[in-house]
Amino acid sequence: MRRCDWSTFSNNPLMVQYHDEEWGLPVHNDRTLFEFLSLEGAQAGLSWQTILNKRGNYVKAFDRFDPRKIATYDKDRVRRLINDPGIVRNRLKILATVANAQRFLTIQQDFGSFDRYVWRFVNGKPIVHKIKSMHDIPVTTTESDALSKDLRDRGFKFVGSTICYSFMQAVGMANDHAVYCFRYKDLV
């Protein structure tokens, strides 16, 4: 069974499992969308493998990515997170997750769900690229540019276009599995 090359470079079973079971599968659950948006923001300047290895710790530390709970985090809770060795202890990224949870709730109110809001940037259907090698995978697209701008205009942090495109790939808004990968046809 052939996979996208990036998933097997490190010989990390978590990367393979993530590739096989999650990456590129369309997600329409608001909490999962918030989780991926938060994790992609935490990844800024780091490798996805670093974040994936800490994902279980993030789920515990951030109340299973419940935006209603995270939106209420106070200074003491933020301080505890900054001291948590199980996550990336970057103060700005932690504060961004709290602020983003607050903005996330506003979008849910305005659009009925974050799912409805975010999927409109791809007209409700995944973008399908015909990736032949890792060099063909875009870093940004016009859709990620638009999503990034809109999120930033709404006050979100750590949502540059590259982060937004990684998010879009993760939640299936873009199918960037290589055409030779067994997952590509499953998701077309």
Summary?
This protein has 188 residues and is mainly alpha-helical. It has one domain: Orthogonal Bundle (Endonuclease III, domain 1), CATH 1.10.340.30. The chain is 55% helix and 2% strand.
Describe the structure.
- The chain is 55% helix and 2% strand.
- The chain has 188 residues and is mainly α.
- The protein has one domain: Endonuclease III, domain 1 (Orthogonal Bundle), CATH 1.10.340.
- The chain has a two-stranded parallel ribbon.
- The longest helix has 21 residues, at 91-111.
- It is globular, with a radius of gyration of 16 Å.
Assembly form of the protein: single chain
- The CATH superfamily appears as Hypothetical protein, domain 2
* Low-pLDDT segments: none
Widest sheet, order of strands: 1-2
CATH first level = Mainly Alpha
Q: What separation lies between the terminal Cα atoms?
A: 18 Å
Q: What string, H for helix and E for strand, traces the elements in order?
A: HHHHHHHEHHEH
Give the secondary structure arrangement, pairings included.
Elements: H1 13-21, H2 30-43, H3 48-61, H4 67-70, H5 75-82, H6 91-111, H7 114-119, E1 127-128, H8 142-153, H9 161-170, E2 174-175, H10 182-187
Parallel strand pairs: 1-2
